[in-house]
Design brief:
- The protein has 166 residues and is an alpha+beta fold.
- It folds into two domains: 1-30; 35-157, no CATH class.
- It is 24% helix and 40% strand.
- It contains three helices and ten strands.
- Mean pLDDT is 83; it is low at 1-30.
Length: 166
């Protein structure tokens, strides 16, 4: 009976140790950003949290938005995707997209600023992934990092023949 109890205690201790090891290694790898602070800094205070509303002077209305803090190139420094909902800024796509990346001087630089939805791709350049911009139509642009900013790289078709001439 004593041996069974001892084995159970050792088993539970091993499971607890393994859980601690996994959680501590996860914590060491995961960036510890204050997302709201990063979003405020990147957007010059226009957006203040991962989700919310803000008043847009151009549209003269309150718009919903989502902001996502990511590390696109694995350097431990954040980048911020923002998506503002509505047709006033987002046109037929219904979403106005931006990506904020710090330049070499440490200043946040917007990368897109147009309607569309993003998808990060497995392909890329100089440590950053290529980004497909989706929206209405059959032909969608892929943007590639050129070392200092994202630039139009190519067009891809949803179906064969969708980007004729490209």
């Amino acid at each position: 009976m004593g041996e069974l109890v001892m084995n159970g205690i050792l088993e539970r201790a091993a499971v607890a140790w393994l859980a601690l090891l996994v959680s501590s290694s996860t914590l060491a790898v995961a960036p510890a950003w204050d997302e709201s602070k990063v979003i405020r800094e990147a957007t010059g205070g226009q957006l203040k949290a991962p989700k919310g509303k803000y008043f847009d002077k151009t549209c003269n209305q309150t718009l919903d938005y989502e902001a996502t803090v990511v590390d696109l190139n694995g350097d431990g420094q954040p980048e911020v995707f923002t998506q503002v909902e509505g047709t006033c800024l987002g046109g037929m796509a219904g979403v106005f997209l931006n990506l904020y990346v710090k330049n070499s001087a440490g200043r946040w630089q917007p990368q897109f600023g147009f309607p569309g939805m993003y998808e990060t791709l497995k392909t890329g350049n100089k440590g950053y992934p290529d980004i497909l911009i989706g929206g209405p139509g059959f032909c969608h642009p892929v943007w590639r990092w050129n070392g200092s900013q994202y630039a139009l790289y190519k067009q891809v078709a949803e179906q064969k023949g969708g980007c004729s001439g490209r």
